Amino acid sequence: MELFIVIIIILLLCGIVAGFLAGLFGIGGGVVMVPVMFILLDDLGYEENAMAVAVATSAAVILPTAVAGAIKNFSGKQITWWPALVLGIGGILGSMAGSTLSVLIPSQVHILAFSGFLIFMALWMIIKQCRYLSAYTIRESDFILIILGIGVGVASGLFGIGGGVILTPVLTSILGMNIHKSIGISLTAMVLIASGTVVSYIVLGWGVTGLFPFSIGYVNLLFVLVLVLTSVPAVRLGVKTGSTMSDKKLQTLFIGMLILLAIRMALSA
After folding, report:
1. How many CB atoms lie within 10 A of CB 78?
2. Confidence band (pLDDT; 50, 70, 90) for 220?
3. Using CA atoms, how far apart are residues 179 and 191, in angstroms rounded to an integer?
4. Residue 207: CB partners within 8 Å, gap ≥ 6?
5. Residue 264 burial (CB count, 10 A)
6. Residue 217 host element (H or E)
């Protein structure tokens, strides 16, 4: 019973941090939830499917978190609907492929790949802040958005991060959007991308034995419930905090967060 209480407390705190980051940076919080759940499940003796359950459950938590963030941004009129929908449709297709790949590769490779990707995104944002490079951006089009959505969906299925941690820096650096507009589009697209990821992991994990109790496929309902209870309310605080910050300061904090989380994930491999 004491161990169960400790698990619940850890998940509640994790949900608060994940929700705040979702609203602040336009991400789903998966970059926080995945490593926390992976470490918990690994320590509890469920190491064989720990990464798959962590990724799948993170995507399930991201759904209501992303909805809450999108609604909040919509009230502030910071969402451009068409790019978000095109990205989301591509993301659904990509998430199915990424989820399938996720259950086929070793967890150590999975974790190190996640860490390397976060470092790459942080470095890319730093490079693109150079005034000589910032003028070179790709023109936005439906074709570019659908391809980007597929790529983000694959990464979302692999890492359970909803896509926001990828979309926000890509939209700002490659397509030249300002950080606030990109966060609104990112949160909206994440609703569709996370839906595709969750459904894929439920199907892939159906009938798998030896999973943590209260699991449907690879999605653990107990973890989802606890994390949602704290992450959704925390989104509002994150959005409110982000709207008062300058673009440069918000990007600097985002880069710092990516680097710290990449190091943490690498250490847990």
Report:
1. 21
2. very high
3. 19
4. none
5. 16
6. none
Distance CA 23, CA 201 (A): 25
Q: Which residue has the tokens 């359970």?
A: 160
Q: Tell me how many helices (H) and strands (E) the chain has.
A: 10, 2
3-class DSSP state of 134: coil
3-class secondary-structure state, position 207: coil
Q: What would the two tokens of residue 104 be? A: 């086929």
Structure tokens at 210: 């030896």
Closest CA to 235 of 20, 58, 64, 28: 20
DSSP characters over 25-67? HS--SHHHHHHHHHHHHHHTT-GGGHHHHHHHHHHHHHHHHHH
Sign (positive/negative) of CA torsion 144, 145, 151, 154?
A: negative
Least confident range from 72-76, 115-119, 137-141, 251-255: namely 72-76
Taking the CA of residue 60 as centre, how many other CA atoms within 13 Å lie in the half-sphere pointing to its CB? 27
Q: Which 3 state secondary structure label does DSSP give 220? A: strand
Q: What share of the chain is helix, strand, coil (3-state, %, to 5)?
A: 80, 0, 20
- In angstroms, the Cα distances linking 269 to 35, 51, 107, 164, 262 are 10, 11, 8, 23, 11
Domain holding 252, by residue range, is 2-267
- 3-state DSSP call for residue 215? strand
Concatenate the DSSP letters of all residues of 92-120 into one string.
Answer: HHHHHHHHHHHTTS-HHHHHHHHHHHHHH
pTM of the model: 0.77
Domain count of the chain? 1
